[in-house]
Fold each of these.
Amino acid sequence: MLEINSLTHTYGEGAGAHHAIDGLSLSVAEGELLCIVGPSGCGKSTLLRSIAGLITPTGGEIRVGGELVRQTPDNLAVVFQDYSRSLFPWMSVADNVALPLRRRDMDKKRRREAAQEALESVGLADAGRKYPFQLSGGMQQRVAIARALAYRPALMLMDEPFGSVDAQTREDLEDLVLKVRGHHTMTIVLITHDIDESVYVGDRVVVLSKAPAHVVGDLKVDLPAPRDQISTREHPDFVQLRAEVGRLVRGVAPVS
Ligand code: ADP
């Protein structure tokens, strides 16, 4: 579904140049939920914006579904951290969710139905007529997730999607992602700096180095399903994996 080969990105030129990504290669299978974790400022958002076709990387190539990314791929949706800037305040919740569906070949009635279905799947069946400012932060981020789901993307990118909500809401939203991916066939790439979250949510965790980012670890997460916030986090495999990811993020050699 996603193939990244020798990706490089440098901001600026000459003495002021900043190397954000250097020789990053990675592939993600269809249906996989991959978490990418790395230290703050290492280049995670740059990577995500490159996959989404929002910036043109200075080197290497990215393919989504076999197609070289030159602009935003048609079958892709992005959920950003800052829901307050990603929802349109003057549009109702239902209109926000239905908006991207204008790019699909759907009449207005079908767009409304698809928006309502997506809102139901994130637990906001009754919120369609409200405006974003009438909802809590966690609910607004659910709306942003519903908007991505309604679009039925083949690939969903999530950039620190739970970074702006409180701890309890964060756990609820992590569980929501696990739930919705069970109902929709979708490949998900979720970027986070939270080590525990990457292991809790991911089928696989890729760890990036400090800037310029490249892959320093690629771990399969084989935890018993269904995952839940208490027993999964207590599971010995979870504890071991988070320690391993933690060492990789901090650049510490594994204990032999
Ligand atoms: P992360 O998401 O891992 O925190 P980013 O991809 O946002 O990291 O940024 C990686 C590095 O690139 C940071 O040092 C940041 O300051 C720099 N950077 C990001 N965007 C730009 C830009 N538009 N121009 C110049 N430098 C940038």
Note: The longest helix spans residues 167-183.
Amino acid sequence: MKLVDTHCHLDNEKFNEDREELIEKIENELEFCVNIGYDLESSKKTVGYTKKYKKIYGAIGIHPVDITGYSDELEKELEELAKNEKIVAIGEIGLDYHWMTEPKDVQKDGFRRQINLAEKLNLPIVVHSRDAMEDTIEILKEFPNIKGIIHCYPGSTESAEILIKNFYLGIGGTLTFKNSKKLVNVVKNIPLERLVIETDCPYLTPEPFRGKRNEPLYVKYVAEKIAEIKEISIEEVIEVTTENARKVYGIR
Ligand code: NI
């Protein structure tokens, strides 16, 4: 069994030079990966990749930083895109109080509307939450049936314990950073059965490549770090997190 990258952005221009090569590596060395949309254009590109490449699945949605202009028409387009066979989630959606391109209320509205869309389509969600954990949890409580992933989990162990009832925590390259004490503590205390591995590439590159471009195959370094923290074998990390990724995205 191989690893999964549950969150990548292969449409990013940083991959323009060698995207095909990279995808060939994914086809050979990963179980699969999920390309995550953040606006309409990237969502359309994501659908294109899922049609063209066997091991690429996708999520489509509007990121809180790109929520300006969210409308009924846009939502209809998203709904149509989400009906493609290999679109397995709505995301990334959520709240970002760090890059406030819109006030909190506008972000919350866009978040709620897209959770409703996910419920309607019976899909999980991929949640982006930055400096907004309290409000994120409040909104998710309004939707007791929705499931998904809290991507690049940024919160405390206490918040994690609340969230893992319905959500998996996406763990990425930040786990390998020197100042990652809080996240190390989360990984130590939360069962492996509730963790999935991601890169968020081209961002958040793990050690030993921190500062360079991130790529899907670097999930390996995150998996190694999880094994080290939990004092278990890398094989167990691969087996359990890959099964988790299949479950949450409904990929068999
Ligand atoms: Ni992302």
Note: DSSP finds nine helices and eight strands in the chain.
